[in-house]
Give the backbone structure.
Amino acid sequence: YTITNCTMLSGHGGVVIGSEMSGDVKKITISNCVFDGTDRGIRIKTTRGRGGVVEDIRVDNIIMKNIKAQAIVLDMEYSKVAPEPVSERTPQFRNIRFSNITAYTKQAMYINGLDEMPVSEISLNDCVFEAETGITIRNGKDIELHNVRVNVKTGPSLSVEKTDRVIVHGFVSAKPITTAPLIRFTNVQNGLLQNSWPFNGTKTFVEIKGANTKNIIFQNNILGEAEVIVADDVKKEEVKQ
């Protein structure tokens, strides 16, 4: 399916997929669209018990304005259901790619997987968000952000929790705030932060915390006066600067 050259004014979302997923949703492209005044921009939602797979989604060349909640949402806990063993009832989100997006929104992005089934193979390329709060990623796997700029009014521009294999490449905020780190990693395993050059005024480039943190690698960053803060509960050998 292809959604292209569209303008969406108001409504619950520019493009919404879910929450009923049992029949699978695959091979969708969304491109060259403008969303103005919608509650959310791109929203993909499901919950435990719905089953099904959402995969091979491409979102490219989108302008979002006056978004009331999140510009992008991938939420596998649309309704609160008690955890259960992985089965045909367990939904899956994988291989979803976002590129060339500019969004003026309340929250930049919200990714929320399940403990038993992380959201996987998600990438952002060449995206700019002007938001009150930044990107939140929880229970993910194989996440990549390349050349992403997130200007916020409060909190981290990027917060990643309980996620395995994260690549952050060329991540900045042009409007740094001093009351929060630019990036916060909590119990992230296998993280690579590379080729970032924070704007002047960035006090903390990244804050790393959580006893389950493992293998955080820094490469080719120009931090200037920005600091890297490692909490006491993180084993020092797990952070390689």
Observations:
- The chain has a mean pLDDT of 95.
- The radius of gyration is 18 Å.
- The chain is about 0% helix and 60% strand.
